[in-house]
Specification:
single chain, alpha/beta, Rossmann fold, eight-stranded mixed sheet, six-stranded mixed sheet, 7 helices, globular
Length: 230
């Protein structure tokens, strides 16, 4: 069974029409997919959870995995029964630490290998990589940590947060971050078994970029052609 991850630069938390979410859910082949929201990076923000339900309850069979105020829910049984696991944004470093304490990191890897579609925005986009560019500590900096389901590094909000692009390019040019993928808000990208399958866009001109270290020790940025969804 194929193991798939969708990097999302938008969705229910940013876009009123949730076109990128429709793309993600369409990949399941289900009219009403089972979607579990994992809001760990936001500290299980109730406002974030309410927005998830408001935007998606009519379109999916929704559930939420809370880790800060746990009940008797078994993360393995809950996440393994989903069509989609949707990881929200927030503090990536804190999220990874909390996942490991609760064993959710291993559960996510098992779900991925079992064919559950993983996706996420911001922290939920970069957590799947070996390393990333994060604002978990304030100013954006490299984070040599992640689940490693996609090789290399990841960077979100490439077109909307001014410090992201120059910092990511500088880190890759210096060799302190490995080559990787940067995603504009308004775009999404599907990876299967760790390899890019396609890039899509809600907004014209938004892209996924392959960013690598050039022979002169500079950063080389290559936009991936995107299929427009709207």
């Amino acid at each position: 069974m194929a193991s798939r991850i969708v990097l999302v630069g938008g969705g229910f938390s940013m876009d009123p029409d949730s076109v990128l979410d429709d793309y993600v859910f369409g990949l399941t082949g289900q009219a009403s997919p089972r979607v579990c929201f994992v809001p760990t990076a936001s500290g299980d923000s109730e406002a974030y959870i309410e927005r998830f339900h408001t935007q998606l309850d009519a379109r999916c069979r929704t559930s939420v995995l809370r880790l800060f105020d746990r009940d008797g829910t078994d993360p393995g049984a809950t996440l393994g029964a989903q069509d989609v696991i949707y990881v929200g944004g927030g503090n990536t470093a804190n999220m990874l630490a909390v996942w490991r304490v609760h064993g959710v990191d291993k559960v996510l890897v098992e779900a991925y290998r079992a064919g559950v579609l993983l996706c996420g925005i911001s922290a939920g986009m970069i957590c799947w990589f070996e390393s990333s560019l994060t604002d978990s500590f304030g100013p954006v900096r490299r984070l040599p940590d992640g689940l490693g389901l996609i090789g290399g590094s990841g960077c979100p909000h490439y077109n909307t947060e001014p410090s992201r692009r120059p910092t990511y390019e500088r880190e890759i040019a210096a060799g302190t971050l490995p080559a990787g993928w940067a995603l504009d808000d308004g775009a999404a990208a599907l990876f299967q078994d760790g390899e890019l399958v396609e890039s899509v866009a809600r907004t014209p001109g938004t892209h996924l970029y392959a960013v690598s270290r050039g022979p002169a020790g500079n950063a080389v940025e290559t936009p991936v052609p995107a299929r427009l969804l709207v």
